[in-house]
Amino acid sequence: MSDVSRRDVLRRLALAVIAGGALDRASAQEVHHLVAQAQGGPDARHVPRMLTDPEYRTLERLTDLIVPVENGAPGALAAGAAAWIDTISSENDELTRIYKQGLAWLDAAMKRRGATDFVSAPPAEQTALLDLIAYRRNASAELSPGIEFFTWVRRMTVDAFYTSEIGIRDIDYRGNSAMASYPPPAEAIAYALKRSGV
Amino acid sequence: MAQAVHDVVVIGSGAGGGTVTKVLADLGISVLLMEAGPMLSMADLKEHLWPYQVPHRGAGERGQGYTTPRSGFTFSATFGGNQIDGEPYTVAEGSDFSWFRSRILGGRTNHYGRVTLRFADYDFKPRSRDGLGFDWPISYEDLAPYYDKAERFIGVTGTAEGIRSAPDGIFQPPGALKAHDVLVQRACARLGIRAVPARQAVITTPTNGRAPCHYCGQCGRGCMTASNYASSYVQIFPAMQTGRVQVLANAMARELIADDTGKVTAVSYVDKTTGTEQQVRCRTVVLAASACESARLLLNSRSSRNPRGLANESGTVGRYLMDTVGSSLSAQVPALSGMPHYNSDGYGGHLYVPWWNWNNKGLNFPRGYHIEVGGGYGMPGIGSFTGIVNRAEGYGLTMKRAIRDAYGTSIGLAGRGEMIPNERSFCEIDPNVVDRWGIPVLRFHWAWSDHELNQVRHMQQTFRAILESFGGRIQPVGGGRGGQQAPPTGQAGPQTGQPSTPAGQPMTAPSVASARPPISRGGAIIHEVGTVRMGSDRRTSPLNPFCQAHDVRNLFVADGAPFVSNPDKNPTHTIIALAWRTAEYLAEEMRKGHV
User: Fold this and answer.
1) Which 3 state secondary structure label does DSSP give B380?
2) Pick from A11, A146, B117, B295: most CB atoms within 10 A?
3) Does position B409 have pLDDT exceeding 80, yes or no?
4) Which one of A32, A86, A189, A191 would you mutate to disrupt binding with B, by most B Cβ within 10 Å of its Cβ?
5) Longest CA–CA separation in chain B, Å
6) pTM for the full model?
7) Are the C-beta atoms of B350 and B158 separated by less than 8 Å?
8) How confident is the model at residue B76 (pLDDT cuts 50, 70, 90)?
9) CATH code, domain carrying B190
């Protein structure tokens, strides 16, 4: 559903409301349905805006390591996290600097460990480096720039994943819909009472 | 051709201006409604949008949410904020204050929290009770009929409870309690505290042609089915259908023009679309521009006859500025990990705790507070899991499991308490700063007293006792609204359109352990009221008990400015009731030829 037609639907709705008319349940449901159809997906073939191709491949690999495939359930790679980070960061000088410098640091750190760069290093060496920079307790003159960068890329990858269709399904968010009533969540209440002891 | 003289010019279209406009239009009186922002288009509301349907997904244009203090309002229907380009305000040295303004038809009612509480009978006579602050010139009985009218018209959820601090009203059936609400309610009961269904300006049955709530939890984004209250779609659009209401949008009022007899004859304003100076002539004028903007307009309406500003012979315009005392605490509750997921959106908060100590003389602070309860499985948004991830660290499936285990397990309690008006909290015209149109701006002065600080200490102790009784792990306190960034009204992420989570504001207090408890900064709760107060004595109050200026008979005020005190009840309901009463009085005065 195009943005234009969505706006048309909403405009009709608005007119109904302005006219003082009641909007019945079926119409409300129709809106939800139409809005749901307007879902956008991850860019299949993203052309990097901020990053060079090698930098972009490194970012993709990082997002894949941060939120990997889990028992066949797609992760950040399939959710297009790298494309979103590249796009939003390309419009923001500070984020651009963070990613350019951070990705360069990653390659330099990998070089010091004898590899060509991060993305072509064996997976075990990649995770060995992440195991260092994924924790603040490892802060040192050498590692701190990497830790700081990884905090950024982890945070934004998590944001990108859980704001995607894939991530929202993964976390099992059940709302953003129209309900005719709001009944008690009996099963959840029983669970909470039993486990909390109040 | 002589310019038309409008019977009533209303300045501002929020809860007060919208109510006056609707009531007058229904009484057959023509209204010119001025709004400093644009018309609201229902098609622009962002209700039901998923984050991925917006390119920035909630991070703000150009990802500004990551690199500048977040507004937290990315999907909401505010069109405003604490900072507006070209419209500065200043804060006196040593004061800490933020001023949230909305520039859109409907003002802040499009996005606000919709907590709808009547004042208690004793709230109108606080000085008589404890010797502090001031009594109102009216009583609960004066306002009760207008609370009734407001509730019948806009619709408010709730249940009759017979609690003196929380008078019952005409209620819509509430939605069921959510799972975390049941825990909080039981924990409160153990402490001897009653928690009751929330009173929200939301309809759950068809009301006045409006469809009932569909429980999407996105009230803050503006409601496409007009199932919650906003002055725009509940009052002003229907009033426009009468043919008696003309909306003048993008009109920034500069000053009120008075004649030799002291009556207002015109409003001068800037047409923001052309940048030109304009005037509208009026028989009467109603200020409803928000408490501080209304004070600013009066103070800027200076003349040789009124050197201190219009309606300010008392010298009290801008004085007795109050906000609500805010302080919050949240906990991660391990007992909720693994709970069967359910749709917890509802309509924001479904449970609240009215002030239970109203008859307790043994406290070290006066007045009281209520508690708003938040939690549940909010729609994931930018920043929803940042706190969890920064605590868990690592990456991969271990980190992902930590997110999954923590999702929906946070419970937040937000205290909203009464501030006593004091001499050090006020606004005035800054002699050195003007806005983009050359209009002098406000300078704010702010100070909390020990009354508020002691109240916050009591809040924090209470919140901790409640949260720990079901095993909650208290989360660090911080944030400009006096507490953790956890949601006070049932929202678990910053992107659910709820205005209650502006992260990134400077912290007023760093931790519970410090001498100063975690109290909100002045203005942060966005309940600023009291700058043009009502009173029987014209020497100490600009307005009479009908919110009519003592000095200017055809000038009325219908926002939060007339408030004499600021009880813990969120102000919107009383703004509506007062405005309704003022509009009926104005209509009667016009009929009698008095104005």
Assistant:
1) coil
2) B295
3) yes
4) A189
5) 77
6) 0.90
7) no
8) confident
9) 3.50.50.60
| Pairing relationship of beta strands B426-434 and B440-445 according to DSSP bridges | antiparallel
Report the alpha-carbon distance of residue B263 to residue B265 in Å, rounded. 6
Contact between chains at A178 and B214 (C-beta distance less than 8 A):
yes
What mean pLDDT comes out for the span B459-484? 85
Total domains in the fold of chain B: 1
Q: Is B190 on the interface with A (CB under 8 A)?
A: yes
How far is residue B229 from each of residues A71, B19, B20, B208, measured CA to CA in Å?
Answer: 46, 11, 15, 12
Q: Look up residue B483 and give its DSSP letter.
A: S
* Residue whose C-alpha is closest to residue A119's, from A50, A54, A65: A54
Determine phi and psi for B36, rounding to 5 degrees.
-75, -15
Neighbours of B242 (CB within 10 A): 14
Q: How far apart are the first and last CA of chain A?
A: 48
Q: φ, ψ for residue B580 (rounded to 5)?
A: -60, -45
Do the chains contact at B182 and A189, CB–CB below 8 Å? yes
Kindly determine whether residue A154 and residue B395, on different chains, have CB atoms separated by under 8 Å. Answer: yes
Q: What does the domain layout of chain A look like in residue ranges?
A: 1-39, 53-171
C-beta of residue B545 within 8 angstroms of C-beta of residue B555: no
Query: Which residues are registered as beta bridge partners of B11?
Result: B34, B287
Range of the domain at B420: 5-591
Q: Are A155 and B386 inside 8 Å of each other by CB?
A: yes
Chain A contact set for B74 (CB, 8 A): none
DSSP helix/strand/coil, B411: strand
Give every CB contact of residue A137 below 8 A, 6+ residues apart in sequence. Answer: none
Provide the ipTM: 0.90
Separation CA B253–CA B245 (nearest Å): 18
Query: What would the mean pLDDT of B85-108 be, rounded to a whole number?
Result: 96
**What's the CA gap between B381 and B52, in Å, rounded?**
9
Q: Which residues contact B587 (CB under 8 A, 6 or more apart)?
A: B23, B24, B27, B29
Cβ distance A46 to A32 under 8 Å? no
Contact in structure between B536 and B564 (CB atoms under 8 Å):
no
DSSP state of B110: G
> Residue B321, exposed/middle/buried by CB under 10 A (0-12, 13-18, 19+)?
buried
- The secondary structure of A89-147 as a DSSP string is HHT-HHHHHHHHHHHHHHHHHHHHTT-S-TTTS-HHHHHHHHHHHT-GGG--TTTHHHH
For residues A65 and B463, what is the distance between their CA atoms, to the nearest angstrom? 39
Q: What DSSP state is assigned to residue B123?
A: G
Of B63, B333, B340, the CB nearest to A95: B63
What tokens appear for B574 in the block?
A: 């009383």
Q: Is residue A115 a contact partner of residue B86, using CB atoms and an 8 Å limit?
A: no
Of B178, B379, B386, the CB nearest to A176: B379
Q: What token pair was written down for A56?
A: 């972009």
Q: How many CB atoms lie within 10 A of CB B93?
A: 6
Q: Which residue has the tokens 């959510």?
A: B178
Flag if A189 and B57 touch (Cβ within 8 Å).
no
Contacts of A155 in chain B (CB under 8 A): 386, 389-390
User: What is the predicted pLDDT for the residue at B507?
Assistant: 32
Give dist(CA B306, CA B312) in Å, integer.
8
Cβ neighbors of A51 (< 8 A, separation 6 or more) are A59, A86, A99, A100, A103
Q: List the structure tokens of B69.
A: 């203090």
Q: Which two tokens stand for residue B64?
A: 């500004």
